[in-house]
Here is the input.
Amino acid sequence: MSEKPGEKALYTILERIQKELGHIGSKLDRIIEMDEKILQHFPEIKEVQEKGAPELGGGALDVMTLLSLPDHLRKTAMVICKMNAGATADEVAKETGKARAVESSYLNQLVTMGHLKKKRKGRKAYFYLEK
Amino acid sequence: MEMGKVISIHSSRGGTGKSLIAVNLAAIYASKGKNISLLDLDFRAPSLSTVFNVGGHKFIEYWTNDFLNDRCPIEEALIDLTEKYGTKGKFMVGLANPSLKAIREMMTKDRAWEMKALKKLLALKPTLLNNIKIDYVIYDTSPGIQYSSINAVVSSDLSVVISTLDFLDVEGVRYMLSELYNAFEKRTVVLINKAFPEHFPWSKEKQKELLHQLKENLGHPTIGVIPCYCDVLQYTRASIFAFENPRHPFTQALYEIADKLESL
Here is the structure.
């Protein structure tokens, strides 16, 4: 059975889509795998994801809560406490001397834990304490 | 231009002489020409209102409680005592409200309020240092680990922890430093008060050994060891000891401490 030229082009496109979807699928698997590995190092986040925020875990970032945080998150959270208008990961990194990507990860963990809020202004993400 | 400092005076237990030292250090700085703001942040047991019995409190409109409760800006909670004591520098004092109603109000605050209080204290330094040209802000805190004192310690640049040589005091300080101060990477010095009787034979070697032991045990330097003076303990607290007894060894020891704190 002979194929019409239009059909052949369509098959080619579908094959390419299938191939690309395969790539995306394997990349997603890698991301999930990496996420699992990262969560192994931060059991507190895993707990929040599985059970929801504990009664005293999320919300207000008072001194007692700051004390209960691991050292690296406490340092990041303190910078946000000092900045009234909130801060970007870049600004926090300048204060702590760590890399922007590291601070971005810590700030997002604090958001997941319910201690910080995040909002976007254009391309920048601001992290702040809930008023 | 050199920025001023916020110094918190803290202790693990009551009765170490924390408030006496906070008041007299502030007085010494003001008499040396530094602009001082002394704030009472001990809301459970306010004591500075007794020391600075300003017109029987009739004229006090706002207290440090009111500042933290958003009822007034910090400027309105400060009483200017420069003229009263004739100091070269400004001597501004913020008193904690000693009324039972105010103490009860401060004891029932929730976590969200304590977070706001910490933010207000963190933002206080630029206000006091830039707007009122204060050189040193001194916080008199409540003893031990509780919200008001940790907020004060966390928002200060330098913390002075007062302790006696009583085993319970030293152990309390050791625990507080390792669990609280180190977690916030606070610059901290220890000051030993009421160490031993005034005329106790105390050789230079023994003093050096004590300082070494304290450093080993506490992990932070001790900036001074003040003996126990009976006349200081018996002195009426409704006045400033250093102003009325400028040549007393207790006052002289505090002048040395004040110099050391300035250089830190």
